What does this fold into?
Amino acid sequence: DTGVSQDPRHKITKRGQNVTFRCDPISEHNRLYWYRQTLGQGPEFLTYFQNEAQLEKSRLLSDRFSAERPKGSFSTLEIQRTEQGDSAMYLCASSLALGGNQPQHFGDGTRLSIL
Amino acid sequence: GQNIDQPTEMTATEGAIVQINCTYQTSGFNGLFWYQQHAGEAPTFLSYNVLDGLEEKGRFSSFLSRSKGYSYLLLKELQMKDSASYLCAVTPQGNYQLIWGAGTKLIIKP
It folds into this structure.
């Protein structure tokens, strides 16, 4: 068990650019979640997958955000035409799909800074 | 609506005991989690409660009262390394996403 891995750890880009983040979940976990967290706040849910199916997406998520999990293993989160307000820590988590009591295990996150 | 409340910040002394409270109002309830998050790091799982009562895990215990929409995390024999944010999160019924509180920043003083 190597834990949840996220890449890159840090991303600095200019406003208007597109960025893509990658998450590799714990290998036997079939649920994968994306969250966004800003300083002094708890994580904010963005979307989640069970295997390759995207089952839920936050209503707060604009059309500039898209996530995929093509083979039910790793996932990517893309933000198009980045804005200042997108600056945050983007966290990925994974869990087993055995009911609601399975803890989510988090990666170290990707910190996005928009100049 | 969904709402989870925790105190913003607490201070305690090394070796003492501290209780961090969490109240929630959610559309259904399927369990409550406590996570620890050190500055700049990912949240790490501490405990899970779905039935009323106390769950004990070493120096950490977590309590739940579903009728009151209330939980607390109890930390005993505090150590300097316990300085972190403690996040309360609820799974609403029929939904596997977590609704998170803003976290309680715990400061441990010698």
Summary: Residues 91 and 109 of chain A are 4 Å apart (CA to CA). The mean pLDDT of chain A is 92. The radius of gyration of chain A is 13 Å. The interface with chain B takes residues 4, 31, 33, 40-45, 48, 56, 91, 100-101, 103-109 of chain A (CB under 8 Å).
